[in-house]
Amino acid sequence: MFRYLLVLEIAVAVLGASMVIGVGVSALLLAWHLDTAPEQRASMQALLGLTAAYSAMTLTAAAGAWGLRRQARWHWLAHVSFVGTLVLAYLFSIRMLASQ
User: CA-based, 20 to 30 A from 27: which of 48, 52, 61, 71?
Assistant: First the structure.
């Protein structure tokens, strides 16, 4: 059972890291060209919020996997925080993408 949880958390951490890179590069490019398109400022704030949400999801997934791999006693707390962060990142993503 723990092996499946470890694989799930590593997969979510890798997926989250790729989302952070993709959304972060988009935010960087938009910030670079924000002076020529100031009407995109709301999009910039949404991209920064999504980058923060995906970063938190990645960090909590990695912490849960690391705690499970090291067989630390706090790994259950890391799993609970991972699930909470995953739900919050999902709800935040839906809200941000629906408002665009």
Answer: 61
Residue with tokens 């630390």: 72
Dihedral of the alpha carbons of 34, 90, 18, 27, in degrees to the nearest 10: 0
The rounded distance, in Å, linking the Cα atoms of 37 and 39 is 5
Within 10 A of 54 (CB to CB), how many other CB atoms are there?
24
Q: How far is CA 79 from CA 9, 51, 55, 68, 76, in A?
A: 9, 21, 16, 9, 5
pLDDT at 2: 84
pTM strictly above 0.85? yes
The tens digit of pLDDT for each residue in 38-64 reads 888 888 889 999 999 999 999 999 999
Q: Any idea which residue has 């059972």 for tokens? A: 1
- Tracing tokens 């799993």 back to the chain, one arrives at 79
